[in-house]
Design goal:
The protein is α+β, with helices and mostly antiparallel strands. It has six helices and five strands, in the order αααβααββββα. The chain folds into two domains: 50 residues, no CATH class; 84 residues, Glutaredoxin (3-Layer(aba) Sandwich), CATH 3.40.30. The longest helix is centred in the last third of the chain and has 16 residues. The structure holds FE2/S2 (inorganic) cluster.
C-alpha cells in the first residue's frame, strides 16, 4: 500500500497525501496534519487550511456506523431536516460529529441518487428510504443491537 513518505515532497502532492491519509484512517487527525506538514515542509496551519477548504476531508474520526442524511432537493422537500433532527436528538450529536463511544457519526450530504425513496438516509453505504420517525428509530435500534453483539 502506498505511503505518504513515498510521495515526492513537492507541494503539488499535498492533496494526494491527504486523500491517502483519509482513505487509510477515515479522517485527518491532528497527528496527520503535523506529519504531513513536516513531510512537505509546510506550516501545520497551511495544511489545516487546505483540509478545511475541501469538504471531502474529515477532521473528526468517523464512528463505526456513518450516518448520512440526504439533504438534496427531493429529500429536503420530503422533510430531511426533520429526519436529521430526529437522529441528532436521539444520538445527542450534531451533523459533523461522532458520539463519545465512537459508534455513530452523523452528516448531511447532497443527493444520494435514490430520490424516489425520499427522504433517504445511508448508513455505511446501505440506503434506507421513505423514512418516518418510527422507521429511523427502529433502524438505529437495530444498529445498537449489532454494536452490543460485537
Ligand atoms: S435528493 Fe435525496 S436521494 Fe436524491
Amino acid at each position: 500500500m502506498a505511503e505518504i513518505s513515498d510521495l515526492a515532497t513537492d507541494e503539488s502532492n499535498l492533496i494526494k497525501a491527504l486523500q491517502l491519509e483519509q482513505r487509510q484512517e477515515g479522517y485527518i487527525s491532528d497527528e496527520a496534519i503535523k506529519s504531513i506538514s513536516e513531510h512537505f515542509d509546510m506550516a501545520p496551519v497551511e495544511v489545516e487550511g487546505v483540509v478545511s477548504f475541501y469538504t471531502q476531508f474529515k477532521r473528526v474520526k468517523p464512528g463505526d456506523y456513518q450516518i448520512q442524511v440526504c439533504d438534496g432537493t427531493a429529500c429536503h422537500i420530503k422533510g430531511s431536516s426533520l429526519v436529521l433532527g430526529w437522529i441528532s436528538d436521539e444520538l445527542g450529536i450534531e451533523p459533523g460529529e461522532t458520539d463519545e463511544e465512537g459508534v455513530f457519526s452523523l452528516e448531511a450530504v447532497a443527493c444520494l441518487g435514490c430520490c424516489s425513496l425520499a427522504p433517504v438516509v445511508s448508513i455505511n453505504g446501505k440506503v434506507y428510504g421513505n423514512l418516518t420517525r418510527e422507521k429511523i428509530m427502529d433502524i438505529l435500534d437495530d444498529y445498537r443491537e449489532r454494536e452490543a453483539a460485537k
